[in-house]
Design brief:
Length: 151
């Protein structure tokens, strides 16, 4: 009887357990990163950002991508090398929560430094951070209002 009860409780617990979401699934579920998801797919980076990480992703919203002229965005989405460079420029190794952000330069996964400013809100290069600490099981997302471009 006792073993059956324990087995039933364990089975019930498993039925109600929630699968943790990686960075890609978390961004897709948010609903305002459709262009980012399309770009990650085109660049072949989905599996990387579903990997163990941890990663800190400065994620541009659909509105941020809309600031790029359509012809330029279409060209970027077709140039896998350049697209990969732009997307990996938005990623920093490790899990950096908002409370741990410090002003200065940080090396991106792409290899170039991004500039972090903390005066009057947090800025990443020329982009404003509009939301922070969207936690995923393999890192964290901070939302940007502009797509940042490597030099």
């Amino acid at each position: 009887m006792k073993k059956t009860l324990i087995a039933s409780v364990l089975a019930l617990g498993a039925a109600f357990s929630v699968q943790a979401k990686d960075i890609v699934d978390t961004a897709v579920a948010a609903g305002n990163f459709k262009t980012l998801a399309t770009a990650l797919t085109a660049a072949g980076l989905i599996d990387t950002l579903k990997g163990p990480g941890p990663y800190t992703v400065f994620a541009p919203t659909d509105a941020a991508f809309a600031k790029i002229p359509k012809a330029d965005l279409d060209a970027l989405l077709k140039d896998k090398g350049k697209l990969t460079a732009v997307l990996t420029y938005h990623v920093v190794p490790g899990k950096v929560m908002a409370k741990d952000v410090k002003a200065g330069n940080v090396k991106s996964v792409q290899g170039s430094d991004i500039a972090i400013a903390t005066t009057g809100g947090v800025k990443v290069n020329n982009a404003n951070v509009t939301a922070t600490d969207i936690v995923a099981d393999n890192g964290v997302i901070h939302v940007l209002d502009t797509v940042i471009m490597p030099k």
